[in-house]
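Input/output pair, single chain:
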Amino acid sequence: MSGMVNVNSEVTDSFYRYKMPRIIAKVEGKGNGIKTVIVNMVDIAKALTRPPAYPCKYFGCELGAQTQIDNKNERYIVNGSHDGAKLQELLDGFIKKFVLCPECDNPETNLIPNQKKKIIQQRCMACGYVNSTVDMTHKVCTYILNHPPDTSESVASNYEKEKKKQNVANEDEEGGMQLPDDEFGEGVVLTNGSGAHGVEDDKEFDDWSEDTSADAVARRQQDLSSGVMGLTITVELEKTPHERQELFYNFMEEKKREGNLEELSVAKEVYEKATQLDITDIAPLIMVGVIFTENVVKEIVLYKSLFLRFLHVKDAKNGARPNERAQKQLLGGIEKLIEANKAKLINKVQNILYVAYENGLISEEVVIEWSKKATKKFVSRELSKEIRGKAAEFIEWLQNAEEDSDEEEEDEEDDADGVVEFSTSTTTRTVPAPAGANGTVGASAGGGDGVQNSGGDEDDDINIDDI
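Output:
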């Protein structure tokens, strides 16, 4: 793997949105026939929105070497032996001269060669800057003028030109009547029954009119929605992680206002949105901040199905396993929730953890690991220590319950006449819950939420296929 690097090498931000593959150079041959093949030139060119021949020719000009360009077979060669690092350095020079906007330094530019005036202009799609002319003293400019890019102007301009062409074609009675089937599709050439172009009468033209039935309209809306959806997803993924988290936060706020977060269909929609934004692991932290209040003990049970699909992942061998990163984010969200409602929640820490554990939101391994070290990642270190101190009794219960469970399993295996009771629940325990978190949750100091939890009910079993 060559790895990805920033298009603008002067930008050191690892979250910089404009990335390109690092050059992979392969030296072939020997003696006078030695040459360097740029293996991934096509991928680099796509990232720069430039024809791959341009940077290849630039390398030849800079190195004083001949180049071999085979666009059909996607093979780009610079004669001689050249190091990948050296070519990467030269590529930075090409990007500064022919890709980056001189006004905003964004690489969202198009080259517009003017063969008549012998100049090459740059148009920036990001800031709109159009008065830039590249340095015409470089030798590669001659090649660019003689081999202009296929799309030297913006998509919007090309689209407007296509519409004008189609309108002219529609008015041309001698040629074929061409009607676009939709704004994003290609035109359809209409012919009469004999195969010749043209329209015989108004009745035949009416037969070609757009279908306005309910089913046809619905199909067109669905096609359009799918196209817009795909474009939206692509644009969203180009945003920084922080921007994508903001989008998900606003999405959750809207869903909360609608008031149906406990419904399964909404849970699926929320998960799909997080998947589109590529933030499924961090989503529980955002969800806690939007959904949970000082009544978190009740809300954990109410919105259990919404969280479960984030906190467990399918495993081909074991069926399901905890998503440790997502569960740690959930615990971090609970810490921040306690910080915001400290007076009412600080004495309910073990109640909150017990209900989250019994409903499958956190696994014993993750919560035990969480309890070992206070951090200042989500709240202050002092509050982090205090929260873990309040959870100490619950953690001790978890550890003892695990040990007792292991001992009972050994006893059951030794008892040949015994009947082994099997449960698929990951939360079933054979020892009493810690004081203040048994039976009616909320009996501890500061409790009183009154959430009943039976521990071994089928509702508490985690089936990853139902998540």
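The first strand starts at residue 4 and ends at 6. The domain at 4-151 is CATH 3.30.30.170 (Defensin A-like).
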